[in-house]
Hints:
The model has no long low-confidence stretch (mean pLDDT 88). Among the domains are: 1-55; 74-220, Rossmann fold, CATH 3.40.50; 488-602, 2-Layer Sandwich (Dna Ligase, domain 1). The protein has 17 helices and 32 strands. By secondary structure, it is α+β, with helices and mostly antiparallel strands. The strands form ten sheets. Strands 12, 13, 14, 17 and 20 form a five-stranded mixed β-sheet that branches. A four-stranded parallel β-sheet has the order 5-4-8-9.
Amino acid sequence: VGGTFTDLWLRTDDGRSFVCKSPTTADVVTGVIDALHIAARTAGVSTEELCGKVDRFGHGTTVGLNALLTGRTARVGLVTTLGFGDVLEIGRLRRGTAGLEGLDLGNYFLRGQVAPLVPRELVVEVAERVNPQGEVLTPLDTGSARRALEALRDEGVEAVAICLLWSTENPAHELEVARLAEEILPGAFISVSHDVAPTVGEYARASTTVANAALGPVAGRYLGNLQAQLQALGMTAPIMMTTSAGGVVPAAALTAVPVRGLLSGPASCVVAGQALGVALARPKVLTLDVGGTSFDVGVVVDGAPLLREEVTFGGADMRVPSVDIASIGAGGGSIAAVNDGILTVGPRSAGAEPGPVCYGKGGTEPTTTDADLVLGVLDPDRFGSGGIRLDVDGARAALAEKIGEPLGLTGIEAARAVREVFDAAMADLVRSVTIERGHDPREFTLVAGGGSGPSHAWKLCRELGLDGFIVPATATAQSAFGAGTSDLRTTASRTCYVRLSPGTVPDDDHAAILTAAFEDAGRRALDAMPHPERAEVVYTAAVRYRGQTHHLDIPVDPEPDAAALVALLAAFEAEYELLFGKGAGFREAGFEILSVRAVAAVRTADASASTTGEQLAVRDVRPVVFDDPHTPEETVVLGCDWPAADQEISGPALIQLPGCVVVVPPGGTARTDDGGNIHVKVGDAA
C-alpha cells in the first residue's frame, strides 16, 4: 500500500501472473479490498472464489510510517528512570538536524524544528536504578511508579512506553512497571524497551519504544479490520506482513511490535530484487524504485541485502533492523523550479492532488512527469491505472514558462534539462551507496522498478558506466511481488559489551560473552518463527574501533572461540579498509564489540513470477527526444501486460507495461526471458 496506489501481484496455480493497481483510500483497507476485486476480475473468477483459493497473502503497507510522519498516532506517555525525563529532548548531538538532508543541513532556520515524539508533560519518572552489569542499585519504588502511571491515565494516554536504564541487562523493573500499567490503564497499549529495542543507548531505545507505542493502537485497528474483511470474503490464509529487515512474519508478530514494519514497502522492493538476482545467478544487485515522490536504492551483495540497525523518521533516531535503503525526494511528481538561475528538481512534490500539470487537476508547477510527456516518453492516452488523459500542451506551456523563460530555453529544451538534473541526482545517490562504500557499480545488476524507474534507467546506466539494466514484468508492483515471495524471516538483537584495549588479544572469556549473547538472540529469533525446525540462522556481531560512533556488522560463528574472535576482528579491519581506504584502520585504538544479531529464515520454495506471457504488439510510432532536443527520433512503441520469453527488440523503442514505460535508447537492444523480465543493453551514447 503506497501513498497513491495500492499494488497487488497475483500468481495463479496455472502459472499466470497479474499486476493490478487500485487507488489508495483514506482508510487503506478499502483500497486493499478494491485491489482484490480488480485481481479477481482480471483472473476471471469471483472475489470470493479468489479469496478461497489464496494460500499465501503477503502484505506491506506505509500505514505506520505515514501515521508517524503526520502525527496521526496514539497519545503516548513515557516512563523513564528518575533523572532521565529529558532523554527525548536532549537526544544526541545531531538532535536538531536529524532527518534533514542535502542543502537543508546548512539551513539553521530548519534546525530543532521537530518536536520530540512525546511532549515533556507526558514524560514521567520512577525511582529505580540498574547498573550496566544488570545489578540493582536502587530497588523499584512501586509507589512512585503508581503515581506516575496514574498521572498518565489522567492525561488520557492510549499507550505507554517504558524505557528504564540498563533494562537490556535486567528487565525486572520494566516488567513490573508494565504489570502496573496494565492494572492502572486497562486497554492501553504497553511497549517495553528491553523487548522492542534491546540495544545500548537510552535515547535511541526510548525513541524506538515510544514510536512502537504510538503505532500500536493504529496497527492493531488496521490489521484487525483488514483480517475481518478478508475472512468475510472467504480467505483463510493468514496475513504475512513484511518487515523493515526484509522477509515476512505473521501479522500477530507485527501487531505487538509495529515499529519493525516502518519500511516494509521499500524493503520488499529490495527483497524482490534479491530474489531476481538469485534466479539469474547475479549475486550483486542494485534495486531502483522511482515512485511519485521518492527515489529509493537498495544494495544486494553476495545474494543478501545490506542491513542497518538504525533509521531516522520525524527527527527521531530509532533502533529498527532494516534493509539499508537510501532515498531522495526525486520521483515522477517532483517539482522543477528555477531559483537564482539554478534549476532544481525536487524534493517538493506535486503529489496526487493536484499532481503534475499534465494531470489537468489544477497543478501549475511542472514536474518530471510533465518533462517525460513532452519528450515523448509517455503516452497521453495510456498512463498508469488512473484513467487519466494527459495534457501535453499544458505540460509544454508550464515548462516553457516556469523553466524555459528564466533559463532562455524552449519548452522542449526545458523538458530535457529537467530530465538531466533529475537523472544526475539519482546517479549521485547510487554513487553514494556504491562507490562511497567501496563497491564498483559496474559490478552490479541494475533492477529498475516503480512508475518512472524503467523510463530513466538507461540514462542512469550511461551516467554510471553500466552496460544495461533489467525491468521485471512486476516493475510497478515490485514491493507487492516481494511481499508475495519473500522468505519467512525474523531478526533478534542482543547487547554484549566486549572492550579490547590496544594490544589485547581476545581470549576464551570474551568468546563466552559472545556465545551467551548469540544463544539468547538465536532463541528469540526462532521463538518468533512459525516453523523454527525449518529455519536457517545467520549471526553477525557489531564491531567498531574504540571511541567511534558507528560500527560494522560482521558475520561470525554463533559459538566462537578465541581464534574465531581474532578472525572476526581481522574481517572487520578488512571491511573497514574496503569502505574507507587502505590504511584507514587504526587498531591502536583497540576494539569494541557492541551487540550481536541473529537472522532466522525459512526459504520460499518458489519465488518465480510467471511461466506464461504475451508477444509485444506494436501500438504506435512517435518522435521521442533522447539526447538532442532538436532532433527527436522516430521510435516504435510496443506493449503487453506480461512479456513472453525470447523476444528481441532494437532501439530506439518504448515498451509499455502496466503502469510504466521501458526506454530502449538508440543503439540499445532488449530481450525477454522466461520470467517476463526485460533485459536492456543501452549501447553507446550517440
